[in-house]
Design a protein that fits this description.
Helix content is 70%, strand content 1%. By secondary structure, it is mainly α. The protein folds into 2 domains: 2-193, Rhopdopsin 7-helix transmembrane proteins (Up-down Bundle), CATH 1.20.1070; 200-648, MFS general substrate transporter like domains (Growth Hormone, Chain: A, Up-down Bundle). Strands 1-2 form a two-stranded antiparallel sheet. It starts with a strand and ends with a helix. The chain crosses the membrane at residues 56-77, 89-106, 126-145, 166-186, 198-216, 295-315, 327-350, 357-375, 387-408, 490-514, 526-545, 551-570, 582-605, 617-638. Keywords: G-protein coupled receptor, Membrane, Receptor, Transducer, Transmembrane, Transmembrane helix.
C-alpha cells in the first residue's frame, strides 16, 4: 500500500490485464475498489505483464531471505551474551523492523493471486500501516547505525554510544514512524491506496517456471553427486594431452568415492532417467488435453520429488541396480511436465505474449540447471552427497502444495480471475474453456505432416547437445579439467546463466519481430533455431581444442550454452504455433522422441570415454557438432510457424439409427395415451 492524496506522495497503482499497451491503470478493479484509485493514474497505460512477474518473484525471494536472515540475527543476539553490545541493539531493532515488513509479503502475494484486496478497506489499511511503520522505522534505524559507526571510528576511545543513548535512539525510531503511519490510516494526512495485482496467467507462468526449475534440479543433481560417489579415473597410454594438471583456481581436485562403477555403467545410470521420461510423454499430453494440465503437471512433479528423496536410500541399500530403478521412476513422473505445460500455456497465453511468457516458463530449465549444479557442489562439500537429494526433493513437494492452490487448468475454471482479464483472454484467444468435445487426436495427419518432421529433427538436435552438457559437463570438468567439487558446481553453472539470459532476451526479440512485422512467425522461429544450433556446435568443438586452459574452456562453453538459449524463442514454441488444440500431443511427440537422445548420449559418452581423456571427449563434441548442424538445416527448410490443418480436425457426427429413434418415440406416445385413458 502507498500514501496518496493532496498532502502525500502519489501511489503507483496498476492492474495489468493486457499486454501493457491497451488499458489504463486501474481499469480492471471491481466497482467497490474504484474509489481507491487516484484519478491521476487513470491517464497512464498499465505496465507490461512481465513487471508483475518480476515483482512476484522478487517478493518471494525477499520474504524467504528476510525470514531466515533476520530470524538468525535475533536468535544469535538472544543466545550469545558477548554480542549483546549497545551497537548490536541497533542491529536487533533493524531485524525486528525487517521482520515486520516481511509479514506484509504473504498478504501482498495473496492479494496479487486472488486479484483483489483481502479484507477490503480494512485489509488495505492494516497492510499499509504495517508497511509504513516497518519501512520508516528501518530507514531511521539505518541512519542511526551509520551515526554509531561514525562516532566509533572518529573517536574510538570515548565516542561509543552507551546503552542509555542507544535505547533512546531506538525509542525515537518507533515514536517517529508510528504517527506518520497512523495519520493516513484516519485520512488526516493523505490516505492509503491499493497495490496492483498480478494477472492469473502471469502467476501460472511463474509457477510453470518453478515447475521446470524443480524438475531440472532433481534431474541434474546426480550429475554432480556421481563425481564424489565413484572411484576417480583419468588415465591413458598417452598422457601428454589427456590429463590436465590441477590448477590453483580452486582448493584441490575432486577425490572421488567408494563405488566401483565403470564409465559405461555411469553412462547407463545417468541415462536411465530418460527411459521413464520417454514413456509418459504421450500419455501425459493426452491426459492434459482431456482432463486439464493442472493435475497432470502437479502429480508428475510430486512423484519425481518423492523418488528424488528416496535416492540416497536406493544407493546405500541397492547400489547401482536400485539407483537405476529409482531414476527410471523419477523419469516416469517428470515425463508429463512439458506436455502438460504446453496445454496450460495454450489455454492461458495469447499469441502476442507467447514469446515472453513462453521463454519465462521454459527458462526454468536453465535456472534449474544453474541451481542444481551450483548448490549441489556447495551442499556436497558442506553436508555430503545425500543432502542434495533431500533438499531438491523437498522443494518439489513445497512447489506442489503451492501450485494446486494457485493454478487452474483454464481461465473459465479459475475462481479468482478478474473479469477484465477474462475479457482480454476471450478477445485474444477466443474460447478460454477447455474443449471437452475435442475430436480424437488426428494421429495420421500429425505424423505425416512435413513441418512436424522438421520440428522433431530440431528437437533431436537440441536434446543431443543439451543432454551432453547437462549430464556430462560436470564429469568433463571433474575428470579432464580436474576441478574440485565446489569449483565444478560453480563453473558448470556459468553456461546456464548465460543460456537463461539469452532465452529470455530472445523471447522479447522474437515477440517484437512478429508484432512489428519484421519477420513472419515461421521465419522468426527459423532464425532463432539456426542461431541456437550452429553457434553452439562451433563453440562446443572449440572448447575441446582449448586443451587445459581452464578459463578459456569455461568461456567457450558459456558462449556455447548461451547461444543455445535462442531455441526457446524458436522451435520450442512451434507446437503452440502449429496447433493450440493439440499442443500437448505435439510437445509430447517431439519432446518424447528427443528425449531418446537422453538415453543414448550419456551411455554413448560413457562408451566413447573409457579413460575420461581429453582426446576421447573431443570426438564426443565432434559428433554433437554434426547432429546439431544437420537437424538445424532440416528445420530451417521445412518448419512452419502457422496453424496446421489438423488443428481443426472435423468432428465426426455420431451415427444415428433413425428407425430405432422413431420406434422409441412411437412407443412413448402410445404409453402416454394409455395412461391418459
Amino acid at each position: 500500500m502507498h500514501l496518496n492524496g493532496p498532502s502525500g506522495p502519489q501511489a503507483y497503482v496498476n492492474d495489468s490485464s493486457g499486454d501493457g499497451s491497451i488499458f489504463p491503470m486501474g481499469h480492471g478493479y471491481p466497482a467497490e475498489y474504484q474509489h481507491m484509485v487516484h484519478a491521476h493514474w487513470r491517464g497512464f497505460r498499465e505496465a507490461p505483464i512481465y513487471y508483475h512477474a518480476g515483482f512476484y518473484i522478487a517478493y518471494v525471494v525477499l520474504m524467504l531471505s528476510s525470514i531466515f536472515g533476520n530470524g538468525l540475527v535475533i536468535w544469535i543476539f538472544s543466545t550469545s551474551k558477548s554480542l549483546r553490545t549497545p551497537s548490536n541493539l541497533l542491529i536487533l531493532n533493524l531485524a525486528i523492523f525487517d521482520l515486520f515488513m516481511c509479514t506484509n509479503m504473504p498478504h501482498y502475494l495473496i492479494n496479487a493471486t486472488v486479484g483483489y484486496i483481502v479484507g477490503g478497506d480494512l485489509g488495505c489499511d492494516i497492510y499499509a500501516l504495517n508497511g509504513g511503520i516497518s519501512g520508516m522505522g528501518a530507514s531511521i534505524t539505518n541512519a542511526f547505525i551509520a551515526f554509531d559507526r561514525y562516532k566509533t571510528i572518529s573517536n574510538p576511545i570515548d565516542g561509543r554510544l552507551s546503552y542509555g543513548q542507544i535505547v533512546l535512539l531506538i525509542l525515537f525510531t518507533w515514536l517517529w514512524a508510528t504517527p506518520f503511519s497512523v495519520l493516513p490510516l484516519f485520512q488526516i494526512w493523505g490516505r492509503y491506496q491499493p497495490d496492483f495485482v498480478i494477472p492469473q496467467r502471469v502467476i501460472l507462468a511463474i509457477m510453470g517456471f518453478l515447475a521446470i526449475l524443480n524438475a531440472y534440479t532433481m534431474r541434474v543433481c546426480l550429475s554432480q553427486a556421481i563425481t564424489v560417489l565413484v572411484v576417480k579415473r583419468n588415465s591413458t597410454d598417452d598422457d601428454s594431452e589427456a590429463i590436465c594438471e590441477p590448477d590453483d583456481i580452486d582448493e584441490g581436485t575432486s577425490i572421488g568415492g567408494d563405488f566401483e562403477w565403470s564409465e559405461e555403467l555411469q553412462g547407463l545410470i545417468l541415462s536411465s532417467f530418460y527411459i521413464g521420461y520417454i514413456v509418459t510423454h504421450i500419455p501425459g499430453g493426452l491426459l492434459a488435453e482431456k482432463f486439464g494440465g493442472k493435475w497432470t503437471l502437479g502429480l508428475g512433479i510430486l512423484s519425481t520429488a518423492v523418488f528424488t528423496m528416496l535416492t540416497p536410500l536406493a544407493i546405500n541399500k541397492g547400489d547401482s541396480d536400485w539407483l537405476i530403478v529409482t531414476r527410471v521412476l523419477m523419469g516416469l513422473g517428470e515425463g508429463t511436465t512439458f506436455p502438460a505445460l504446453s496445454v496450460l500455456l495454450a489455454a492461458w497465453v495469447p499469441a502476442n505474449e507467447r514469446g515472453k511468457l513462453g521463454a519465462l516458463v521454459l527458462g526454468g530449465g536453465q535456472v534449474g540447471t544453474i541451481m542444481g549444479n551450483l548448490l549441489s557442489g556447495v551442499f556436497i562439500d558442506a553436508y555430503g552427497w545425500e543432502f542434495v537429494f533431500y533438499f531438491f526433493g523437498g522443494l518439489g513437494v513445497v512447489w506442489f502444495a503451492i501450485f494446486v492452490f494457485l493454478c487452474y487448468s483454464d481461465p473459465t475454471s479459475h475462481p479468482f480471475i478478474k473479469p477484465s482479464e477474462r475479457e482480454y483472454l476471450v478477445k485474444e484467444i477466443g474460447t478460454i474453456s477447455r474443449n471437452e468435445d475435442l475430436p480424437p487426436t488426428p494421429w495420421k495427419a500429425i505424423l505425416t505432416n512435413l513441418p512436424m518432421f522438421a520440428l522433431v529433427a530440431a528437437q533431436i538436435g537440441h536434446d543431443w547437445g543439451f543432454y551432453i552438457m547437462v549430464t556430462d559437463l560436470p564429469k568433463y570438468m571433474a575428470d579432464v579439467l580436474q576441478f574440485s567439487i565446489k569449483a565444478n558446481g560453480l563453473y558448470s553453472s556459468l553456461p546456464y546463466i548465460m543460456m537463461w539470459i539469452v532465452s529470455v532476451g530472445s523471447g522479447f526479440v522474437a515477440d517484437w519481430m512478429i508484432r512489428r512485422g519484421v519477420m513472419s512467425t515461421t521465419n522468426t522461429r527459423k532464425v532463432m533455431t539456426g542461431l541456437a544450433a550452429f553457434g553452439p556446435a562451433i563453440f562446443m568443438v572449440g572448447a575441446s581444442y582449448a586443451g587445459c586452459d581452464r578459463v578459456l574452456v569455461v568461456v567457450l562453453f558459456t558462449i556455447c550454452m548461451g547461444l543455445m538459449g535462442a531455441y526457446y524463442a524458436g522451435m520450442k514454441l512451434s507446437p503452440l504455433d502449429m496447433s493450440p488444440n493439440y499442443a500437448g500431443t505435439l510437445m509430447a511427440i517431439t519432446n518424447g522422441i528427443g528425449a531418446i537422445t537422453g538415453v543414448i548420449t550419456p551411455y554413448l559418452v560413457g562408451v566413447m570415454t573409457p579413460n575420461a581423456s581429453l582426446l576421447e571427449w573431443r570426438l564426443v563434441f565432434w559428433v554433437a557438432f554434426g547432429v546439431l548442424c544437420v537437424t538445424a538445416v532440416i528445420y530451417c527448410i521445412w518448419a512452419s510457424g502457422e496453424v496446421q490443418p489438423f488443428n481443426n480436425a472435423p468432428i465426426q457426427p455420431p451415427s444415428v439409427d433413425f428407425e430405432a429413434q422413431e420406434r422409441k418415440v412411437g412407443g412413448e406416445k402410445t404409453r402416454g395415451l394409455e395412461q391418459s385413458s
